[in-house]
Amino acid sequence: MGENEGAEKKEKHEKDNVEKEEKGEEKTKDRKKKDKESKDKKDKEDGEKGKKNKNKNPEDKKDPAKLRAKLQKLDAKMEALSKKREDILKLLQEVEINVTEASGEAV
């Protein structure tokens, strides 16, 4: 009798584990579905905001003051990008030098 009870408890325990795993899979599916729905909703909201901003004034293209302001804004962005590019190039050169030195020592 003791062996049968032990076997029955083991089987019941295994069934419980299988049921928990199935529930866990369902929960992850539900989470993924909710995440996707919230992302889709957010994308739609962002899309609507973008459409509202597309209504630009055509007179802006003829106003020299506004065109100069745009040009200055672009120049500032280009300078920042140029500086960033130089920093990355320096880092790349340092890394390449370190790699060549390390490989030279290993040989």
Report on this model:
- With 107 residues, this protein is mainly alpha-helical.
- It has 2 domains: 1-55; 60-107.
- Helices cover 89% and strands 0% of the residues.
- It has 2 helices and no strands.
- It has helices at 2-53, 64-106.
- 0% of the residues are buried.
- The mean pLDDT is 79.
Q: Could you name the ranges where pLDDT drops below 50 across 5 or more consecutive residues?
A: none
**Main sheet properties:** none
Oligomerization: single chain
N- to C-terminal distance? 72 Å
> Could you tell me the mean pLDDT?
79
Give the fraction of residues assigned to helices: over 70%
Count of helical regions: 2
Number of domains as seen in the coordinates = 2
Quick one: overall form?
flat
The secondary-structure element order is HH
Lay out the secondary structure.
Blueprint lengths: L1 H52 L10 H43 L1
List keywords for this structure.
single chain, 107 residues, mainly alpha, 89% helix, flat
Summarize the structure.
Helices cover 89% and strands 0% of the residues. It folds into two domains: 1-55; 60-107.
